[in-house]
Amino acid sequence: MNANDFLADKKPVEDAIARLEQKSTAEVVCVVATESGRYDRAESFFGVALGLVGLAIADGAWASWGPPGSWTGPAPLVAQAAGVVVGFLAGLLLASFVHPLRRLLVSAREQEEEVRRAAWAAFSGSRVGSTAGRTGVLVYVSLFEHRVVVLLDSGVRAVVEEGFAQQLVDKAVAGLKAGRRAEVLAELVDQVGEALAAKLPPAAKTANELPNHVIALHPR
């Protein structure tokens, strides 16, 4: 599944963001990414593995072409090279599009680092960290890694309890595991609104600084 297809209906999330903006100066942006890293090493490993399989197939096919009771030498260099190239490309494509296969060769630590890096890039790129009151909140969901990150700007961190972002992450993970996609993201936004309504009231807010739509990032 890619980010473009993750939410069949984005309206519940966008409506929740609009409700939040009626009661608080906070600005929430929800980002769904198909993946947070390229993981080229894992793809290359499968490419090399299938390249060797392609080499063996090319050599075996060449040997089988001889008449019964005869033998031939190794396959010509051109045939061997073709087997390697075709196998390598097949391995790259297979690992690229079959996520469970690629995930086998990507460590949990690498996934965590890539998701955190991509979340901060989204935080900056979507201007969550550039609001007038520093009241931005980013909810970042990465599908390949099955991870959620919530980032709070300084104005929000100053008024919420420690561990608030982790509470939101835990709620999102539990909901996504249960197959509740738009519903749980909307509930997250509502929870942010309830927590910040009294602490960051809307009186000082002059404009809607960030768009309310869900951002889908699909790099491939």
* CATH structural class of the largest domain: Alpha Beta
Enumerate how many helices there are, as a single number. Answer: 9
Q: How many domain modules? A: 2
Strand content: 5-15%
How many individual β-strands? 4
Mean pLDDT: 87
Which terms summarize this structure?
220 residues; alpha/beta; Diaminopimelate Epimerase, Chain A, domain 1; 2 domains; 4-stranded mixed β-sheet; 9 helices; 54% helix; elongated
Account of the 3D structure:
A four-stranded mixed β-sheet has the order 3-2-1-4, with helices on both faces. The protein folds into two domains: 3-37 and 107-217, Diaminopimelate Epimerase, Chain A, domain 1 (Roll), CATH 3.10.310; 40-103, no CATH class. It starts with a helix and ends with a strand. The protein is α/β, with parallel strands linked by helices. The chain has nine helices and four strands. Helices cover 54% and strands 10% of the residues.
Topology record:
Blueprint lengths: L2 H4 L4 H13 L3 E7 L6 H25 L12 H21 L1 H5 L4 H18 L10 E7 L4 E6 L1 H4 L6 H14 L4 H15 L18 E3 L3
Parallel strand pairs: 1-2, 1-4
Antiparallel strand pairs: 2-3
In short:
The protein is of the alpha/beta class. It is 54% helix and 10% strand.
